[in-house]
Amino acid sequence: MMEAILRFEKNTKFIDETNHSEAQAEVRKVSKKLKALNFRASLLKIGIWKEIAEQVEGLIVRCYFAKEKLAWEISRKQSLKKKIEIKWSDILAIRAKIMEDGTGVLEIELNRPPSFYEESTPIPRKHTIWNISSDFTGGQALNYRSP
């Protein structure tokens, strides 16, 4: 189970894409046209492993509507970026709790482990190139379902 503490900006828009059979096809059409939604997180926890953002942009959550994926990008000082990626089709359950102060917790249960990536050598003013990597959560991501 993955858990993230998030901070939502005032202009964050949310889309409810659930299994309402009549609306599902229309929602998918619309979501394919949406640009990625990015927001900051202060903590990502998977089992007992956790990543705490060391800087403002240290932990970014990206929601790719067209690709139907969620990604957590981890940036550490003097280190290559790392990324954890989840396909929407791998999500069994998702729960969001948003507090009045704008912070929230997002819990995700998966039916298979997420994918892991590490940044290749960065090139200034170019998109990040990601290489597949091994699980950097100390094996905690293999426990992708609640007991």
UniProtKB/TrEMBL annotation:
InterPro entries referenced in this protein's UniProt entry, alphabetically: TRF2_HOY1_PH
Pfam families, sorted: PH_TRF2_HOY1
Recorded superkingdom: Eukaryota
Stretches assigned to the TRF2/HOY1 PH-like domain: 38-145
Protein name (Swiss-Prot/TrEMBL): TRF2/HOY1 PH-like domain-containing protein
